[in-house]
Amino acid sequence: MPETSNDESAPSADHSAAQRESGAVADHTAMNTEQLQAIWVIPPTPLDGTIHLAEYDAEWPRLFAREAVRIRGALGEQALQIEHVGSTSVPGLAAKPRIDILLIVPDSAEEACYVPALTAAGYTLCIREPTWYEHRMFKGPDTDVNLHTFSPNCPESTRMLRFRDWLRSHPDDRELYEQTKRELASKTWQYTQNYADAKTQVVEDILKRAQSD
């Protein structure tokens, strides 16, 4: 998934009802610039530099809580689940100072049911991926936020939560992940997404241990 997205993602066989009907499901592997531009509603500015990682900040959970209240207020019952995910959700883990949020709505393909309300609350739709679990990603109105939207029973949301929970309770893998991130962050990347793609192997290795536990 694009790095305007969460830290960890990979393809799965299951998908939303809309995708089952269309037969449109694609593996979410590393994408080139042309492929990235195809899913961006609002293209990002190229990075052409290194990645800034901040030490863990106890303010991050509070920022998430504030956004969760705003999202719930905008969507009401349409917000089936709101979770803090990504590196900022793991105490003690260095991260890009960007709050990743997982939002589950009844059907993420039905944009009319939630996009206008989020837009009115100040969120901006930046990514649309119909062939990857009908993923939508929004930026926040003030805090640096990535709001990832999926439908219920999406394998990607399960992966996000499993990865978060494993890192919270397994310091060895948390340290391994942080070391890998620091090594990669020191390199120069055209887009932040290229940095995210480079983390794929360590994420997959950690997820395998989490799934077998």
- Rg over alpha carbons: 16 Å
Q: Can you name the CATH architecture?
A: 2-Layer Sandwich
User: At the first level of CATH, what is the class?
Assistant: Alpha Beta
In whole angstroms, how far apart are the ends?
Answer: 25 Å
Beta-strand residue percentage = 5-15%
- What global shape is seen? globular
Strand segment tally: 5
Largest sheet: 5 strands, mixed
The number of distinct helices, counting runs of at least 4 residues, comes to 8
Number of spatially distinct domains: 1
Q: Strand order of the main beta sheet, please? A: 1-2-5-4-3
Q: What is CATH's topology name?
A: Beta Polymerase, domain 2
Helix/strand/pairing class, anyone?
Answer: alpha+beta
Low-confidence stretches: 1-5, 9-28
* Estimated helix fraction: 40-55%
From the structure above, extract its key features.
alpha+beta; five-stranded mixed beta sheet; Beta Polymerase, domain 2; 213 residues; disordered N terminus
Give an account of the 3D structure.
The protein has 213 residues and is an alpha+beta fold. The protein has a single domain (17-212), classed as Beta Polymerase, domain 2 (2-Layer Sandwich). Helices cover 40% and strands 13% of the residues. The protein contains eight helices and five strands; from the N terminus they run αααββαβββαααα. The chain has helices at 17-22, 33-39, 59-75, 115-120, 155-169, 171-185, 192-198, 200-212, and strands at 81-85, 99-104, 124-129, 135-139, 145-150. It has a five-stranded mixed sheet, sandwiched between helices. β4 and β5 form a beta hairpin. α5 packs across α8 (200-212). It is globular and about 40 Å long. Mean pLDDT is 87; it is low at 1-5 and 9-28.
